[in-house]
Amino acid sequence: MTHYTDNLSQLGAQTAAPTSPETAVLERVPNPHADTLYLARFTAPEFTSLCPVTGQPDFAHIVIDYAPGDWLVESKSLKLYLTSFRNHGAFHEDCTVAIGRRLADLLEPKWLRIGGYWYPRGGIPIDVFWQTGPAPEGLWLPDQGVPTYRGRG
Length: 153
Hints:
Layout: E1 4-5, E2 26-30, E3 40-50, E4 57-67, E5 71-73, H1 75-83, H2 92-107, E6 111-118, E7 127-131
Parallel strand pairs: 1-2
Antiparallel strand pairs: 2-5, 3-4, 4-6, 6-7
């Protein structure tokens, strides 16, 4: 079930953190430059979720790049959505791909990619990457700026 709205119910209002990604409401706004090819980036360097086996916290640096079409994600709703993973038990791959797919479904962007740079679990860092397809020709696509694991900080 996809929860989203075009009515801004969270922006400018005191909003409690959602208890799960399934109950989080993502909101979108019209893109005033829908005719322009450009990249928007969101970075969440302190993303947390829970290991579905041990219940211990997992940490990641999440980078979301997208070329907007008709819609932009409303940033407060995105922050609340990402916060909803703090009590959510899922593997790194599931969290990363689920976030990417949910945003792609909401925004119908020209292109979207997500990089989940996870801190080590059991001594092994797990990095997860997903995108909707090839980047559009002519899109400026900077590096996500997160180095391979060497004690990230």
